[in-house]
Amino acid sequence: MPAFADQITHLKTRLHRYAHEYYVLDAPSVPDAEYDRLFAELQALEQSHPELLTPDSPTQRVGGKPLPEFTQVTHKVPMLSLNNAFEDEDIAAFDRRVCEGLGVDEVAYDAGPKFDGLAISLTYAEGVLVQAATRGDGATGEDVTQNVRTIRAVPLRLVGAQIPQLLEVRGEVLMLKKDFERLNEEQAARGQKTFANPRNAAAGSLRQLDSRITAARRLAFFAYGVAQCEGLELPGTQSEIMDLLANLGFPVCHERACVSGPQGLLDYYRRIGEKRPQLPYDIDGVVYKVDSLAQQEELGFVSRAPRWAIAHKYPAQEELTLVEAIDIQVGRTGALTPVARLKPVFVGGVTVTNATLHNEDEVRRKDVRVGDTVIVRRAGDVIPEVVGVVLEKRPMRESPGADLFSLAHEPVNPPFEMPKTCPVCGSHAVKGEDEAVTRCTGGLYCAAQRKQALWHFASRRALDVEGLGDKLIEQLVDAGLVQTPADLYRLTLEQLANLERMGEKSAQNLLAGIEASKNTTLPRFIYALGIRNVGEATARDLAQHFGSLDELMRPQPEEAALQKQDEARRLDLLMQVPDVGPVVARSIVDFFAEAHNRDVVQALVAAGVHWPAIEVNLAKEGPLTGKTFVLTGTLPTLSRDDAKALIEAAGGKVAGSVSKKTSVVVAGAEAGSKLSKAEELGVTVWSEDDLRAALGR
């Protein structure tokens, strides 16, 4: 047996090297026939000795049995999105903010292309790929390990003299232009659906439940960063990390560069823009990252994006088409949005039939009319928009001129007029002072708002009511069974079972999903209410600041009940919450000032919707104010999130890596490289008991 084991190990090593040369370095050292011969030899040995088959074997790239579904993966380090920039002035402003935040005159950046693909997270344990997950919503993705194993550019086992104990690499899965063309030719020859663009093809290929289909699609991969690393000290800059990834066997983009200052950023942007048509892959912009990791940590994050990075997008693709109608959509907050119904046109890889016109002011500014020829723009996944009207193509008719001997021309199509009533419920439509948006006053009586509000309430990031989709919500509203979210908790098995395409088993499953949704968190509940301008991040900040729903719905205990004359004080109180300004504060006050909104909230609580208490310290100063903490290892009783919440509530800050600015490292069992780094730098190390003592617990 040892002889066979050694032979298998030798074959795997050779095949990994040849694949790396072919797919990553683009410099094969052996012909395809030799690779195929060695692959067949390894396959035969593994079939004879299945106990020697390992997940990192090259034979595991061919795909396995179809999965029933993808399982969910929680990202230990969130996969954040980037803020976008489109104009030169945006880049100058970004560089200025970075320099001011660091207190320096010039900053070095690592610049690289922004691939038009799918973000992926790859986790390696002791150098072997153990998990691959999609970005999802940034906090939770899908486990696509079986499919990613089929991507030959992704190393199944890392190479090099020093291999980390744990390494989480972030990168992009995409499809090269030549492979996309080949795939569409094969699809067409088989009479199957062709793909609109390489990104759609890559997304469809990566999310196949049958990994054998993914294996046949020729996906590519480029690494662009590290999220976690244990057992190996990372270098101090992003550019050096990219070099490290290349040395470990990952494909990295060769078009990256290190530049300084706004002019350096813009020069790189234009240089890559000129190369863009010749690149073997699609890009929709470039990404700039502050090169120094210490400076990245110092700059930190705002909401769901880092302050130290930005995506500089290239101009969107544009086409001409005809406006066939302008309809009005009613959103979940009552906003009336004009939407242009377009003669179908192919823009940016997809066929576009609708484009948002945003609001009445925007329609009037652009003077968009039914029958006009317009310029339609689409960039990446952004909703298509009407850029402007081609006035030369506007239909005109002759009309009598200023005198009897001449004719003038006037437009055939009249200017757009915003309706005075809601097109769904007939309620008055009003436009608030200093607001661009016209809104329906029907509130929960408007069927359009009702359906949207229920969909938002039940969505995965809100109360996550399993089994309650948009089609079922339409049925429940149209049947008069549900008017507010609280009505969901009054539904009976008989009512549900009588709905179209809803049997008794499905009804039982839905009731179970509704019952399970009662157990939630305060941030989710606040977000689920659909308060205007209150997203997930703001909901989380409100929950952390106020600690309870009662405190959010009314002034602090020492203040009088919420009345008109107390609004100024209430607004000031809300604006003490991070990132809550006058507009958001006004939205919250207006929401809870409505009696029907308070009634719905109380009905939900009465129905049994509940959440664990949040302990907060509302004082501006706390026992840990001014200190920066790093958590490592497994604490005896506190989860990582619980420990972080306690530290932040006491005024402290939690960072992801150890540096000279770290005040304390809180270490638990199996603490890794962060503890070693703390001891090397002389940083104070606490146990959980030390932390509790500092908090007075």
UniProtKB/TrEMBL annotation:
Keyword set includes GTP-binding: no
This protein's record includes keyword Cytoplasm: no
BRCT domain: residues covered: 619-697
Cofactor: Mg(2+); Mn(2+)
Molecular functions per Gene Ontology: DNA binding; DNA ligase (NAD+) activity; metal ion binding
Positions of the catalytic residues: 114
Keywords: DNA damage, DNA repair, DNA replication, Ligase, Magnesium, Manganese, Metal-binding, NAD, Zinc
InterPro entries in alphabetical order: BRCT_dom, BRCT_dom_sf, DisA/LigA_HHH, DNA_ligase, DNA_ligase_AS, DNA_ligase_CS, DNAligase_adenylation, DNAligase_N
Catalysed transformations (reactions): NAD(+) + (deoxyribonucleotide)n-3'-hydroxyl + 5'-phospho-(deoxyribonucleotide)m = (deoxyribonucleotide)n+m + AMP + beta-nicotinamide D-nucleotide
GO cellular component: cytosol
SUPFAM superfamilies from the UniProt entry: BRCT domain, DNA ligase/mRNA capping enzyme, catalytic domain, Nucleic acid-binding proteins, RuvA domain 2-like
Residues noted as binding Zn(2+) in the record, renumbered to the chain: 422, 425, 446
Gene Ontology biological process terms, A to Z: DNA repair; DNA replication
EC number(s) per entry: 6.5.1.2
Pfam families: BRCT (PF00533), DNA_ligase_aden (PF01653), DNA_ligase_ZBD (PF03119), HHH_2 (PF12826), HHH_5 (PF14520), OB_DNA_ligase (PF03120)
Residues reported to bind NAD(+): 32-36, 81-82, 135, 172, 289, 313
Biological role: DNA ligase that catalyzes the formation of phosphodiester linkages between 5'-phosphoryl and 3'-hydroxyl groups in double-stranded DNA using NAD as a coenzyme and as the energy source for the reaction. It is essential for DNA replication and repair of damaged DNA.
Family recorded in the similarity comment: Belongs to the NAD-dependent DNA ligase family. LigA subfamily.
Entry protein name: DNA ligase
